[in-house]
Amino acid sequence: xxxxxxxxxxxxxxxxxxxxxxxxxxxxxxxxxxxxxxxxxxxxxxxxxxxxxxxxxxxxxxxxxxxxxxxxxxxxxxxxxxxxxxxxxxxxxxxxxxxxxxxxxxxxxxxxxxxxxxxxxxxxxxxxxxxxxxxxxxxxxxxxxxxxxxxxxxxxxxxxxxxxxxxxxxxxxxxxxxxxxxxxxxxxxxxxxxxxxxxxxxxxxxxxxxxxxxxxxxxxxxxxxxxxxxxxxxxxxxxxxxxxxxxxxxxxxxxxxxxxxxxxxxxxxxxxxxxxxxxxxxxxxxxxxxxxxxxxxxxxxxxxxxxxxxxxxxxxxxxxxxxxxxxxxxxxxxxxxxxxxxxxxxxxxxxxxxxxxxxxxxxxxxxxxxxxxxxxxxxxxxxxxxxxxxxxxxxxxxxxxxxxxxxxxxxxxxxxxxxxxxxxxxxxxxxxxxxxxxxxxxxxxxxxxxxxxxxxxxxxxxxxxxxxxxxxxxxxxxxxxxxxxxxxxxxxxxxxxxxxxxxxxxxxxxxxxxxxxxxxxxxxxxxxxxxxxxxxxxxxxxxxxxxxxxxxxxxxxxxx
Length: 560
Fold this sequence. Notes:
By secondary structure, the protein is of the alpha+beta class. Helices cover about 50% and strands about 15% of the residues. It has helices spanning about 5-10, 40-50, 60-65, 75-85, 140-145, 180-195, 205-210, 220-225, 270-300, 305-320, 320-340, 345-360, 365-380, 385-400, 405-415, 420-435, 440-450, 455-470, 475-485, 490-505, 510-520, 525-530, 540-555; strands at about 10-15, 20, 25-30, 35, 95-100, 105, 110-115, 150-155, 155-160, 165-170, 170-175, 200-205, 230-240, 240-250, 255-265. The strands form four sheets. Strands 10, 11, 12, 13, 14 and 15 form a six-stranded mixed beta sheet that branches. A five-stranded antiparallel beta sheet has the order 4-3-2-1-7. Strands 5-6 form a two-stranded antiparallel sheet. The longest helix has 29 residues, at about 270-300. It is globular and about 75 Å long.
């Protein structure tokens, strides 16, 4: 297998049942929908399908997928179960991936191979991976010819790079142990996969990105070659029982650093650490990239639907004040007027309606919840695997007397996108609405594990405060509400609920101050409005709710 031509595998698609495994795009699709899988699960499926004419041993898999390093049976079983789940197989049914007793595994489904256009001639790779040789990318002049030539206007170069286009360059291993290369590669691959889930993104495929491995790069040149706006690069170092990771997001046109992050912690299980780091980076980059695109869009003289979507999404991410909600609503309405079929604009417009009802900035919250639900149901009829739409629909259901259904919808969202931290936050709210305030904090901790600096962290912290206040843990509630306000001073509802907690603990002066701060942000708020927008009919929830009304009265919130 040494010296195998790149096009032998790179341009293949494997068709089985209603699935397509595209080896060039590294995508698994069921009919027209992408099935989210991690890079290792994709590699596992590809290896089994490509070697479907024989039984594959555990040793074969470890050599091919894990470069021969030590892998526990539990880790292998976890990836195998994920592969089976992705193609709706099971350990009992085994209609596609069959376990051969004491021998190994075999892909037994009927497979057709479809070749795409041949790869550029002359691209070959002498470095192989695994028992049968999974070829990796090779740096060549042909790769450089794939980029679009920049457009010019009046003699000046005009950037033709797509919006939110990014390449994740292979992370460098700057430690002393060459064996840590697999970890650096794993972070790179997983980030590439997870960033591709960002709405409206264009992410350079792993194979092309890895052609830059081990070479000194000029990010501006990379941007021109690959026709992308952003370059993400990083390094990992693991030695002396410490793990360090540095990552930078760079504007490929100017070379300016837009964002940087550093992890420095005791070395632990690298599998678990990789998942945690990738989730945190993906969530943070999602918000950062949307904000950068929104800033670009503001300077566009004739914004199109996606320009307006990015601006509206950035408004939702930044704050949930009446003013920001109104601004987001206007931007998204303009986006949908230009492109009524823009799914991302429709989902974010539904989020605005949900936020309007959730923040109690209007008396007719139920009308906005109805509008949000109608929009999300339509989106899901067009895009059944849209994780964020499932999550927001779940949040609507939780606030319209269908809490159990709402939690199930958020669980579905997490199955589609494991990094969707906000889904854990909404599940925490669901537990509060079910009168189980003592369970809220655990779900919020799950959200923070995935995204500790999330733009919506103030909402999650508020949810914990609500749960604490509902069960009579008033002092704890005060602490959580303060943490929420430290994260975002511009959320009126948190001020009012903080005022209630402070009133119940006897800190009347501070309670009245919190109420005044809330009214400065939302002058129309009243206890009556808060009451008529009750989210659940659970008796324990309703009993806890009475404590909010009592505390707000002590704080001087208008009765209405």
